[in-house]
Write the structure tokens for this entry.
Amino acid sequence: MNHRRGLETTTGQEGQTPAPSFLITIDTEGDNLWAGPHEITTRNARFLPRFQKLCERFSFKPTYLTNYEMARDPFFVDFGRDILARDSGEIGMHLHPLNSPPTKPLTADDHRYQPYLFEYPTPVIRDKIVYLTDLLTEVFQCRMLSHRAGRWAFNETYARILLDLGYRVDCSVTPHISWREYPGDPAQNGGADFFLFPEDHYFMDLNDIGRSGQSSLLEIPVTVFDTAPAPIRLIKKKFRRAAFIHRLANKIFPTIWLRPAKGNRRRLFQTVALAERLQKDHLMFMLHSSEFMPGGSPTFLNERDIEQLYADIEVLFERIARRFSGRTLTEFYYLVNK
């Protein structure tokens, strides 16, 4: 796949400042993993062509960040190969360690606890990343260059392994959000804490992934904004380990991001408007593949929910298309790393 192809048509004439980038990221995984199923199914793959068709209508190019079970689903494999052949999107890597080979139990009940990848010993982490990278490369006949961690579980060890394997882009960071309160292995410390991480893209310091450094691994954070006034943000930072105070502040001044949910159309538009006001050079949308299927997630339970989801996405895309150009994650990497 030629990852540079298509940039000329979205950046305008030579020397002209390119339009800000709209990056669609889909965590492409099994059905309703929130429920911790012992048998993982992939029926949601059959619901993705409708979303892809909508994206192409606006000349947007999704990046499908793909995990193990979806890489083994024949329907999704054909779907992904077609997208690559038409240069209409990208396939990246997304890893949930529970069922991604080589499988190795970490807790008394991994299906219940769903441990984070960074909670495993480093050799196991590396083996899992190498295995899935090789599988995706073989199945889709292209290099894996983009990545998002399962359950947002990212750290320095993970980043170094990705760089060793030739990855160029990570998009696991959710600024202003900590996942510490969401446990994996109950004997360890919970999820990643991105509360103080930058909103804008940066090349990572591999000794501290929350800082800009000299590595060639580009972090493109998910578009997340804290709507609190500056004095409240300082209080939230000071007391960010005090869960009650933090939850209260978030209830009054919510964190907003470009992630559709029931009844959040207004917040989606608020996120776009704020990105424009702050002159951000990228806007990142995220959703899970299973959320396009009725009953595939706790959020969208039936056909009516799905139709409302598509109604919200369509008007959102119409709004975004006025100012932003669609790019894959790797196209954005080449844009900022000329």
Remarks:
- The CA atoms of residues 201 and 336 lie 9 Å apart.
- The domain at 7-223+258-336 is CATH 3.20.20.370 (TIM Barrel).
- The chain is about 35% helix and 15% strand.
